[in-house]
Amino acid sequence: MSPLNPTTVRYVFVTGGVTSSLGKGIISASLAKLLQARGYRVTIQKLDPYINVDPGTLNPYEHGECFVTNDGAETDLDLGHYERFLGVPTSQANNVTTGRIYQTVINREREGAYLGKTVQVIPHITDEIKRRIKLLGETGEYDIVITEIGGTVGDIESLPYIESVRQLIWEMGSSNTAVIHLTLLPYLSTTGELKTKPTQHSVKMLLEYGIQPDVLVCRTEKPMTNDLRRKIALFCNVNINAVIESIDASTIYEVPLLMLKEQLDKVVLNKLKLALKQEPDMQAWKDFLGKLKNPVHEVRIGLVGKYIELKDAYKSIAEAFIHAGVANECRVKLEWIHSEKIDAEHVRAQLAELHGVLVAPGFGERGIEGKITAIRFARENKVPFLGICLGMQCAVVEFARHVLGYADAHSSEMNPGSAHPVIDMMAEQKEITNKGGTMRLGEYACSVHKGTRAFQAYGKTRINERHRHRFEFNGKYQDAFEQAGMVASGHNPDNGLVEIVELKNHPWFVGVQFHPEYKSTVLNPHPLFVRFVKATLDRASGHISEIRSGESAASSMV
Ligand code: GLN
User: Fold this and answer.
1) Distance, C-alpha 306 to centroid of its chain
2) Does the model's pTM come out above 0.90?
């Protein structure tokens, strides 16, 4: 092995055993947070073993929300956790799927890069996996790259990834790498015991593939005794202090502090032969957690969407409400409301008790009329409202129908024949037929106009927000909308597209074409969510806030 170069980037691999959904993403993000708090520059990458090139074409019921990065990558929702914990943006390089790996190799084969050779899983696919893992380290921006391998050890589709990790450990040297294996200790209530056998078996399987884990993070619902830790350490061949308890937590935001107590960061740094540097400064995080657990106020907000059966479909929105709730010292109780179940006859009973309504992003016709009905109720009854992407588009359609009197107004996504296509396909989208990665994606600038709710929230006139859509506010109608009281409070400075709309005569009614939820983090809650929650609090306490021209509210935000 080559001698240790102190500037070498270190690689931490996180694998999972026994069962899926153990929370590898949260453990990876928590470890990264602690290493960051010690002064290291850290990023996290997720390798997904499915054949879709990215999750952009997956139904949210399949895989939860599709997270969008600044550079316009449609990615796994775990990247949202990474950003929310670290406060550092991720990119296309942070999420790689088997589909993308094969696509690259097959394209290269067609170009003739392997002329004369048989293209095989080993070495060509594994080489491409290794290249993708090293890519983030090669940017020079990070000291430590944490790579999370999706799936469970033993899955057929994870095999090339596990083999690539084995090769990288050999190539980079053991002290430049660490393997964390996440397992489950099932609790048998009949005997009152935590069982270690599934953990032993999953470690044995990793060993069969040539990988000895350095750290075992054991998910458990009961505390582990020292005897149990010793037993796991002995049978799995790891140090006893590298057997880490990961007990069920009441919130994911507690996990970094639990991992700090278990010294996961120290164990990993010792393995990587890196200095511990300072004790992690987690004060701001602890303050956040303290407020999260001890709210002063409570509001109820309806989240109207059509994928509510799977809460992960709206992950970033739900998390943004947690952040914004804390900023207002307020618990936000989300009422998940299925848009297909809302109708004019029952809407009052369905929404009247709420302090605010959010209409969620989405695609297609299903549930649209329910969303429009909910928006009409919020507009007419002065209930604070935030519409995101499709939610904003529905607010525009609702206003066109019921205020401007265009009875058949619609988005041309739902009704291409409408005489009033107030939401229409962008010109550059009209020629596109491919579905994958072809929307308006990623970060675009927006000019925010003074004297608006949007400006009050952001406190500045230039913002950047992330997009994921094909349709837009139809600029032909802007004058008619403005005259009737729905104003454009944000525009794209380059092409004039309307990015934010809001109502003049309403306590707080804002629709955004972009996705603010992707940018909300624990220590930087998103200003629109913070202001929206504040408006719901005002409603709950019967207080209507005033807006003054040129007012800056951002300074009062966490
Ligand atoms: N379906 C709408 C569009 O493509 C909205 C997309 C969304 O809500 N993300 O424009």
Assistant:
1) 19
2) yes
Alpha-carbon distances of 48 from 29, 52, 97, 128, rounded to whole Å: 16, 9, 5, 14
The single-letter DSSP state of residue 373 is H
Phi, psi of 541 (to 5 degrees): -100, 10
Q: Is 394 a catalytic residue?
A: no
Residue located via tokens 């992950």: 315
- How high is the pLDDT of residue 437? 67
Which ligand 1 atom lies nearest to the CA of residue 391?
A: 8
> Six-digit token pair at 265?
């960061």
| SS3 state of residue 529 | helix
Query: What letter represents residue 31's amino acid?
Result: L
Residue 389 Cα to ligand 1 middle (Å): 6
**How far apart are alpha carbons 55 and 77 in whole angstroms?**
9
Q: How far is the CA of 17 from the centre of ligand 1 (A)?
A: 37
Q: Which atom of ligand 1 is nearest to the CA of 361?
A: 8
In the chain the first and final C-alpha atoms are separated, in Å, by: 48
517 is catalytic: yes
Residues of the chain with pLDDT under 70: 1-7, 428-437, 543-558
Tokens of 529: 């969510």
